[in-house]
Design brief:
267 residues, alpha+beta, Arc Repressor Mutant, subunit A
């Protein structure tokens, strides 16, 4: 049975120091299959008696495993639970960053990535700060939740996600009390809207008052499911919608595909 660490087990350091020592040792254990006390000491700079004491605590709680015949230590099975809160959409944000930056470096316009959050989309990462063509509201949009049926990223997600997932999301929208979700109750309208988006391969941004930028979005498809949407924003005074699609739809799709491939390879 795992025992709870006592004050004596924790050593004489402050709680913060004890925590940081434990994390440093877990990180060192994660570097290789089997680690010796000497190896961990070399990597962390901690005294060997401290390492032995902390390894005993970690092993007692299942986060480390002591191998027989003094062969060393390895991560315990319980350490796997430490990554369970790192969800796939957190991973895709980090994967997407360089691809979004690369698009903006070549084409100048800002692009953003959004992920599903129950029955809305959340804008997670953008290259707006790297673009000469940003609006004052672009930074404010980051991390904001946007409605599924009144955003390009939401429409792109719904139009290309599997039918059972789409039905679940639309059922949530029909039950919602938010004004932005009322159009979900008109099933014929929604079906026609999403079918048109699926045919043309992208979702245009619905008109928005007091927003000088327009845009369109495409899905990020990995393993036959939508894991995110990527959207391009441009000024309507600089480009017509037709010209924007002609110039940038293919590069935006290529960016989405590159993100999807990198995500699939990592996960």
């Amino acid at each position: 049975m795992a025992r709870s660490p006592s004050k004596q087990d924790a050593g004489t350091g402050a709680p913060r120091q004890v925590l940081l020592r434990g994390l440093a040792i877990l990180k060192a254990l994660n570097q290789r299959t089997i680690s010796s006390v000497e190896t961990i000491a070399a990597e962390t700079g901690l005294p060997k008696p401290t390492i032995v004491r902390m390894l005993s605590l970690l092993a007692g709680e299942g986060y480390a495993l002591r191998l027989p015949n003094r062969r060393g230590y390895m991560l315990g099975e319980r350490a796997l639970a430490l990554s369970s809160g790192y969800r796939s959409h957190d991973a895709i944000v980090e994967i997407a960053r360089p691809h979004l930056s690369r698009f903006t470096a070549e084409h100048k316009w800002p692009v953003s990535l959004a992920t599903l959050e129950t029955d809305t989309m959340r804008l997670r990462v953008s290259s707006s700060r790297e673009s000469p063509f940003t609006t004052s509201g672009d930074d404010a949009r980051m991390l904001r939740r946007v409605p599924m049926l009144h955003s390009a990223v939401g429409l792109a997600y719904l139009a290309f996600c599997p039918a059972d997932e789409r039905d679940t999301i639309l059922a949530l929208l029909r039950a919602s009390g938010r004004a932005a979700d009322r159009s979900a109750r008109d099933r014929a309208y929604v079906d026609g809207l999403l079918a048109g988006i699926a045919r043309q391969g992208f979702a245009p941004s619905p008109p928005a008052a007091r927003d000088p930028a327009q845009g369109f979005a495409v899905p990020v498809l990995a393993a036959r499911r939508v894991v995110a949407s990527v959207t391009l924003r441009y000024f309507g005074k600089a480009l017509t919608d037709r010209e924007a699609v002609r110039r940038y739809l293919a590069p935006l799709r290529a960016t989405a595909n590159a993100i999807a491939e990198a995500f699939s390879a990592q996960t």
